[in-house]
């Protein structure tokens, strides 16, 4: 049986950290894992529990959680609470490194104890809670040594989850107990193929990446809650009576550790201020023995304020209804308390809490809450629209007390607030979101023979999706039989579809279980964001396979597809063969239209076919650049480049995704030394709606945007007119948009003048990208015999010399990657346009013609200053003139 072992660095029998461990471990338990937990008594020195045996602790946890601490620590010479305290104070706080040799010696010994324990338990998963917080760097270093060793020994892949609820910058940063940024004496995060880091929210992930830029595998796993209202039942009906709380009193619940940082004194002041206008009572669920001095201070305060009879310190309450509770709690659970509470309070210290689980529990249980404005409250709850009184002062002010009184006295307001928060909470913190992440990254393993993940971004593609998925399912091998479905999987990235896209995908997966299909959601709108999410998802899962998996030692490929295009039956097999055979980092497909879709439109088809002929020549020579419609990238090359990068531009005063993420990604991979291969037999049919819906803008030279902005347009028709003038519905018999793939009102051929302008626009977009960018990325290509033959020796030498001059000139001038290649390609076009078009006429055909007219501003420039003003023109990022001249992200 598989086993999960977890450790909490919190060193308390109950805390938010322990509760979250149980929630996460439940997903594993439900899939047959044995679950073991070390509460960390032998880790933190300030809790007074070092080497203390467990007694009633199991009663606080579900019966399927077994407590299993590291055996033999008490017998390890030199390892005790005094040593841990000294290391924290001298090494971490003060930077005195004389104890580090002892830390390393002890961590080696603890590592051996951990490995022995994990082998005895048959551990296949490890969950570390708060191990980065340097309360005990001996244990942290021991885990960092044991995890790689255990993973290698048993071929476990990325089997360890390391989650930090608190970090140096989140847990009492003002105290300086963990040193000062950048925390040089804290063990750095371990970048190891056996570890996956989990952050609680995006801010924590961002800060962690700043602190540890060498670590790439950091996912956001928010604390999750079962969103069901807490109810008074026969089992808990006597809860109030048991504690002497009147049935009609307004009960404020506080579930917390009874320590100074939690500021329970604020709750006592709040109750005193509410009385006599409100019959308010306070129930504090927490261990009163953890800090006896604080408990004594709080009870004295309640006496002083005259509310001692209204404040109940109830001791531990079980966090889970499955647990039996502890003697001090009388067997009750937190859910029982919430069923009777009118309000949940969380008036904690400003810089102590990183998440605020009691708020999440209240939201999930359908109970209103009040909170202090602690540091991360806006990040976790406040900025998402939750409603609650927020205390921004040291003690409750009259205004705050009045707001709380109104909430607890007005049943209608209290109900409306609770329902509003509950709906929001289910969306942001529902258990399904956490389960989905764990399933995708951990619990649903990638097939042991899988070599490719096909990433398919979708947004309202219900009309096209069945045919696209069918074409992926029926991929053929070189012999004509069905391609082995174990070689590939499909990752469908839903980008906020409002139609039946997701339901159709799930239905297809259920009907075709032989094809692994995963549905991933990307909330930020834009195909670039969706493609990035799908590729990161697939890349990270692929690294988690055991080392003995048949495909684990082979190259793994991330493959991009578009939901409105069609892939040929041999698409994947040919792409796989080209990538394996060449060892290239990027594989580029052949993209084509079916001529019959443009029957009766000869001028338009001529412009399209000329573009495709030029592209085939350039791709064969230079390998081409990826297009989202179909390309492959080797996983390690993807990771080295940092994945798909999202560029943003302003459109009408708001930021929008830059459309050319696929080309820009190809530039990044190539700039890092990555090679490209053209796979002409791996073919993708382009949906002609892409032409029809942008045709007028192509003619005018404004396709996809202008003024320097490239934006995605929704090119799906709702209803249109077919080639014969009839009304058609989207989704014609071939799966395209109406008969013949048309579907745009007024489909027509071009006039001669329009055809000329469309060709000019297309060739200006094509030439800098496909003939000049490859040379800028790798000038050595100009010495290769096929390239010199293509350009001719004189032009090849002239291009090489000019590229060297431009590269030297821009070395310090321009730090923006896209401009480091895009604007020089524009400059080379202007400087060598006549020669380049002569090459195309010679190799592609005389119908390629001559360069389109220059921009008027350049036509007037004296010849001797032409290069100078070309530079200014191409670098004019404010107006976007050069961008508009050369095309906005691709045409045909």
Automatic annotation (TrEMBL):
Citing just one GO molecular function, the answer is:
glycosyltransferase activity
Segments forming domain Glycosyl transferase family: 239-418
The answer to keyword Transferase applying to this record is: yes
Annotated coiled-coil segments of the chain:
none
Q: Which UniProt keywords apply?
A: Transferase
- InterPro entries per record: Glyco_trans_1, Glyco_trans_2-like, Glycosyltransf_2, Nucleotide-diphossugar_trans
Q: Any idea where the Glycosyltransferase 2-like domain is?
A: 453-605
Is Metal-binding among this UniProt entry's keywords? no
Its protein name is: Glycosyl transferase family 2
Which organism is this protein's natural source?
Answer: Actinacidiphila guanduensis
